Amino acid sequence: MSGFETRARAVLAACNARGIMLATAESCTGGMIAAALTDIAGSSSVVDRGFVTYSNEAKMEMLGVSPETLAAHGAVSQETALEMAQGALAHSRAGVTVAVTGIAGPDGGSDEKPVGLVWFGLAMKGRAPVAQSHVFEDRDRAGVRAATVETALDMVLSALKEG
């Protein structure tokens, strides 16, 4: 079993145990989190939908991310990740959502926002949304994206285990 598959199976089982559905809001991973989940037979009982919102316009149109947030903080920010996760919750039947927005590289980084920086947002019904960032250093584009999928699945699993 791949690392994705092991994590994805654990997330699906945890969602099933709680009787909730899951949605993803993805930028830098382009749907890889949803793909990791839906690669597993029977995932349709848990996965509601995945939003691939690569452009700022898609983030605004599909998830309701505010133009002011994007102008003030940029697409790769705590604020945007939180709004993405909350937007996915509001625009789906999911009880838990995970959002990712980052700089996978090899270009696009800066001193303030280096290549490998990813912001994660998580929203659950009845809880305040949370965000965290990781900088996946010394990785190529594929490595940043793979590490992002693994971290996002771990984040969902951890939130579901908390209650």
From TrEMBL:
Taxonomy, superkingdom: Bacteria
Chain ranges of the CinA C-terminal domain: 7-159
Gene3D superfamilies: CinA-like (3.90.950.20)
InterPro entries: CinA-like_C (IPR036653), CinA_C (IPR008136)
SUPFAM superfamilies named in the record: CinA-like
Name of the molecule in the record: CinA family protein
Organism of this sequence: Nitratireductor aquimarinus
